[in-house]
Specification:
By secondary structure, the chain is of the alpha+beta class. It folds into 3 domains: 1-115, 2-Layer Sandwich (60s Ribosomal Protein L30, Chain: A), CATH 3.30.1330; 117-240, RutC-like (60s Ribosomal Protein L30, Chain: A), CATH 3.30.1330.40; 244-254 and 262-375, RutC-like (60s Ribosomal Protein L30, Chain: A, 2-Layer Sandwich). It has helices at 44-58, 71-82, 153-170, 188-205, 297-314, 337-344; strands at 11-16, 19-25, 30-36, 61-69, 92-95, 106-113, 118-122, 125-132, 136-144, 178-185, 215-219, 222-223, 229-238, 244-247, 266-271, 274-282, 322-329, 353-356, 366-374. The strands form 3 sheets. It has a 7-stranded mixed β-sheet with strand order 1-2-3-6-4-5-12, with helices on one face. A 6-stranded mixed β-sheet has the order 7-8-9-13-10-11, with helices on one face. The longest helix has 18 residues, at 153-170. It starts with 10 loop residues before the first strand and ends with a strand.
């Protein structure tokens, strides 16, 4: 496995067995983004076998693992995890009701090499990992679910956010250090307003608005444990004057908070070794907040891609800087449209995972999230 040179920014893309792998060189360490999608002969047990071999050959440590798929695929992943050295890893297992026809979903992994990784233990469970380099301390939390699943959506949301707060405190951070969140909400269309109210209440209580809101994805998909909420978090605390986190411009859309959703369209992390851009889940929404191109999925894809492209260009990046992305489709039958759309719009193959999921409005048919990096 070729390594990214630590002295300069570089992205190397290779295959590793059934997995693709992008190695992003940092100052003194390397970040690996790996993944796979369902295909003949490419199944969860093989994914994990290849991942274990990758870890053995490189010495990298997995800090994030997500799987999207139907109940059968997620069942296979649970069985494969239980029999693998990764059994204790906090994972996010996301379940939709239609994955095999057409094929969609798959595995996403983040791993690091060259830093000392420590588990984040909260209330007796390992729910994430933390590590530091010369410029910042990082904390990744995953598979976060409420302890009491009998509560309604707002109650489960509050439980999960409180867990995030407690786990960050155990890691020497506060909620204001959060830069990226993912909220996977089962039945999102029935209670998205309740979710937003619970999140906004917490943000007000903990003075999040005075600094910045995290970039975020809120998408409608169930999880293997059957709770209404499953969340993931990236947080960091700067240790260096040259490491900054700022809200990135989204020229094509207005502030999401104007219509009640508390997140930033994108955040940029700028450090001496390069820049990372986290683009929130984006959809066909006009600057005034209304849905554009109702009932036209092709037009919504084009509009969403234009929104994301505008964020990239405003940050001095383009599609070649994309290192990971997920395309979400409300209707499973529409997932086949992504390959043609990507080709027609001349986009690189940086969005490999295509997922069947409910978007946060019943008239939104498509959503796209993206992570990009450059020097």
């Amino acid at each position: 496995m070729k390594q990214a040179a630590p002295a300069q920014f570089e992205i190397i893309t290779e295959a590793f067995g059934s997995l693709w792998c992008r190695a992003v060189g940092k100052a003194g360490w390397t970040e690996f983004l790996l993944g796979s999608i369902p295909a003949p002969g490419s199944v969860p047990s093989q994914w994990l076998a290849d991942l274990s071999e990758f870890m053995a050959q490189t010495g990298a440590t997995v800090v994030e693992l997500d799987t999207f798929g139907d109940a059968a695929l997620i069942g296979e992943m649970r069985e494969a995890l239980a029999a693998s050295p990764l059994a204790a890893l906090p994972v996010s297992l996301l379940v939709n009701d239609s994955n095999r026809d057409p094929l969609g979903g798959g595995l996403l992994v983040r791993a690091v090499l060259g830093v000392t990784v420590e588990p984040v233990v909260y209330q007796g469970a390992t729910i994430g990992f933390r590590f530091e380099d010369e410029t910042a301390a990082y904390c990744y939390l995953g598979g976060l679910m409420p302890a009491d699943a009998s509560q309604d959506g707002a109650g489960q949301t509050t439980q999960v956010i409180s867990t995030i707060k407690g786990a960050l405190q155990a890691s020497g951070m506060v909620f204001r250090d959060v830069v990226r969140t993912w909220y996977y909400l089962d039945g999102i269309l029935a209670w998205y307003d309740d979710f937003n109210r619970a999140r906004t209440e917490f943000f007000k209580e903990h003075d999040v608005f005075s600094l910045r809101m995290p970039a975020s994805t809120g998408i409608g998909i169930a999880n293997a444990a059957g709770t209404l909420v499953l969340a993931k978090v990236h947080a960091l605390r700067s240790k260096h004057a040259g490491f900054e986190v700022c809200v990135a411009d989204s020229p094509e859309q207005g502030c999401a908070y104007a219509y009640g959703s508390a997140f930033s369209r994108a955040l940029e992390l700028s450090s001496p070794d390069g820049r990372t851009l986290h683009i929130s889940g984006s959809a066909s929404i006009a600057p005034g907040g209304e849905t554009e191109y109702v009932d036209d999925v092709d037009a919504q894809i084009r509009r969403t891609v234009a929104v994301v492209a505008a964020i990239l260009h405003a940050a001095g990046m383009d599609w070649s800087d994309a290192v990971r992305g997920i395309a979400y489709f409300r209707h499973a039958k529409d997932m086949v449209l992504w390959a043609a759309a990507r080709e027609a719009l001349n986009l690189p193959p940086s969005v490999e995972i295509v997922v069947h999921a409910d978007v946060c409005r019943d008239d939104l048919l498509f959503e796209l999230e993206l992570e990009a990096a450059t020097s």
